[in-house]
Amino acid sequence: MTHVQESAGQAVEVRRFWQRLGLPGLVDVHTHFMPERVLRKVWDYFDSLSPGDDAPVWPITYRAEEAERLAVIRDFGVRTFTSMLYPHKAGMAEWLNGWAAEFAQRTPDCLHTSTFLPETRVESYVREAVEAGTRVFKAHVQVGAYDPADEVLDSVWGLLAEAGIPVVIHCGSGPMPGKHTGPEPISRVLSRHPRLRLIIAHMGMPEYEDFLDLAERYQEVRLDTTMVFTDFAEPFAPFPRDALPRLADLGDRILLGSDFPNIPYPYIHQLQALERLALGDEWLRGVCHDNAARLFGV
Ligand SMILES: [Zn+2]
User: Fold this and answer.
1) Which residues does 198 contact at the CB level (< 8 Å), separation at least 6?
2) Which domains are assigned to the chain?
3) How far is the CA of 1 from the centre of ligand 1 (A)?
4) Dist. CA 51 → ligand 1 center (Å)
5) Burial class (CB in 10 A: 0-12, 13-18, 19+), 46
6) Contact residues for 77 (Cβ-Cβ < 8 A; gap 6+)
7) How many angstroms does the Cα of residue 31 sit away from the middle of ligand 1?
């Protein structure tokens, strides 16, 4: 039996989780939907991490056709999600944005998502994406291998700060460091654009505390929970127990993210990993639904 076939049983568990909290469902700000051949490449990459024996390092739990992946996430009761996609080279973002606009149109529960990287036409296609109704952007500093403080992006950050459109940004050095990952480049961006609505993916893994510093300094900085606190991430990027009170204080700016479908464990595990922090039901309600619902008006 595949994991997807098992998902019916998992849906019962996931729904029980949010029903117990009295929520109408979940909002997941970090899910990946992208053109089929791009997603296949992402999966090939995770498969290649296998050491060659029969135990893959990063098994993709929800490897299935798009329609089936959508059915699974809806069955979990995720009311609103995103289609995080990102280019690894110049000239690719506009094509991805075209796909994502079409995907959002036929997928009303998906927040229209766009992306960019520093390149000649970036300001014009970001502006077009904003005018087309993009609700959220994804930026990936490690895969795109760029400095987020690159001056080519300065007008883009200004535009997005002005429009108040959140940007989920993978800028921490985990699971793989890049030349421009870590808190330093992003703090240069924020010092120039203090009202920018950045959502730090993976809570900045593994530089959690540096990114908590930024969230404490800048009111519009938020953090997504993607993979953090899980049994998979804790061995190589443990969240410091001392920092738990800071998570409680920032409770209204922490947002559920999962990395569905590219996760090496069942979806429920992310939720259980949050629950076992023992920060309370009020905290869980904010993180799993209310904070993102407020931010996106859904
Ligand atoms: Zn992701």
Assistant:
1) 166, 167, 169, 186, 189, 190, 218, 220, 221, 222
2) 3-296 (3.20.20.140)
3) 26
4) 22
5) middle
6) 11, 14, 15, 18, 25, 26
7) 7
**3-class secondary structure, 138:** strand
Strand order in the sheet with 26-27: 26-27, 78-82, 110-111
Ligand 1 centre distance from Cα of residue 123 (Å): 24
The structure's pTM equals 0.95
How many A from CA of 49 to the centre of ligand 1?
16
Question: What does the pLDDT profile of the chain (298 residues) look like in tens digits?
Answer: 455 557 778 999 999 999 999 999 999 999 999 999 999 999 998 888 876 666 778 889 999 999 999 999 999 999 999 999 999 999 999 999 999 999 999 999 999 999 999 999 999 999 999 999 999 999 999 999 999 999 999 999 999 999 999 999 999 998 889 999 999 999 999 999 999 999 999 999 999 999 999 999 999 999 999 999 999 999 999 999 999 999 999 999 999 999 999 999 999 999 999 999 999 999 999 999 999 999 999 9
Q: How far is the CA of 170 from the centre of ligand 1 (A)?
A: 8
User: How many angstroms separate the alpha carbon of residue 263 from the centre of ligand 1?
Assistant: 9
Please say whether the beta carbons of 224 and 199 come within 8 A: yes
Q: What is the DSSP string of 168-233?
A: EEE-S--SS--TT-SHHHHHHHHHH-TT--EEEGGGGTT-HHHHHHHHHH-TT-EEE-TTTTSTTT
For residue 107, the CA-to-ligand 1 centroid distance in Å is 19
